[in-house]
Amino acid sequence: MVFPKGLLLVCVLSLVVFIEAIPTNRGLGRHHKKHNCVPAFLVNATEEVRSEFKAIVNQALDAAATAAAFDELAAKHPEIQEAYQQFKTNVETKYEALSTEAKEALKAFEEIKKNTALSKEERKQQEKAEWEKLSDETRRAIIDLIQLQGDCGELDDRSAEDNN
Predict the structure, then answer these.
(1) Where is the signal peptide (predicted)?
(2) What distance in Å separates the CA atoms of residue 133 and residue 128, rounded to the nearest whole number?
(3) Residue pLDDT, tens place only, 35-76
């Protein structure tokens, strides 16, 4: 199963908003919002750039248009260009090492995203159901592929454990 380069990037970046919304084990009632939990290339970006990124992710664009929008965003903001290029390279490299389960999950998430018959709420429900079917190991692999950084709730706890 091979993703074309642009499609892989779009799929990975589209999962950012979904993963950011997963309830955490921190804070009151397991629903502590993850603040500044972003892909690596947006760590030093302004809130405006992060908002533009999320607006692209939330649009119902096809893969080519979405990839072009991400490239345009990076071109428009020189402060993230180098980090964005490195991010893209890392995604392609890490994808090759993913398990079959993780690759199939990414394909399933892409199918959900491009299903224009679904409402935003239906899309979220299907993404959540797909996510819940995955093993913890596969979830971690996908999160690592996305290269999230910042205050990511239990994702921070996972990173701390990995570093011990």
Answers:
(1) 1-21
(2) 9
(3) 456 788 888 889 899 889 888 887 767 777 888 898 999 999
